[in-house]
Amino acid sequence: MICRFLALATALLLLGAAPVAAQQRPAAKPAVVAPSFFTSYTYLSYSVLDKGTSAKPMAAQGVGGTLTLHPDGTYQKRLQLSGNGGVMNFSQDGRFTFSGDQITFSYTDSKGQARTDQGSFRFQPKARTLTLTLIGYPTGNQGIYTLRAD
Hints:
Blueprint: H1 2-24, E1 40-49, E2 58-59, E3 63-69, E4 74-83, E5 86-99, E6 102-108, E7 114-124, E8 129-135, E9 142-149
Antiparallel strand pairs: 1-2, 1-3, 1-9, 3-4, 4-5, 5-6, 6-7, 7-8, 8-9
Signal peptide: 1-22
Keywords: Signal
Organism: Hymenobacter lucidus
């Protein structure tokens, strides 16, 4: 009986301590962006950093299209890349979230699979530019997008 009491008391103490421990964790730094962040952007450039082949990003040719970020957390991406004798179109509609300088894009791919792209962003309101540096594959590689607000 005493063993059950001690086990129950220990469990209650641990459960009671959990909210205190959670309150002591530092809160995530909220992202602070100018209202002008939520707008349509035109793609200016796209570079790929493939650490297996080079320490410097390689610029993709023929970049075009738009990215629209809405205050409700939805987005539309219409990216075009020229290559291999034609134009490749990438269309995504999804949701985005951000905290600090980190951003996540969540969407459903053409096969109906849930996908996410994560990375960092840098918004420069005076220059009206947005730079997205997204995690690539394999791990360590990056896609770097530069956009200008319309």
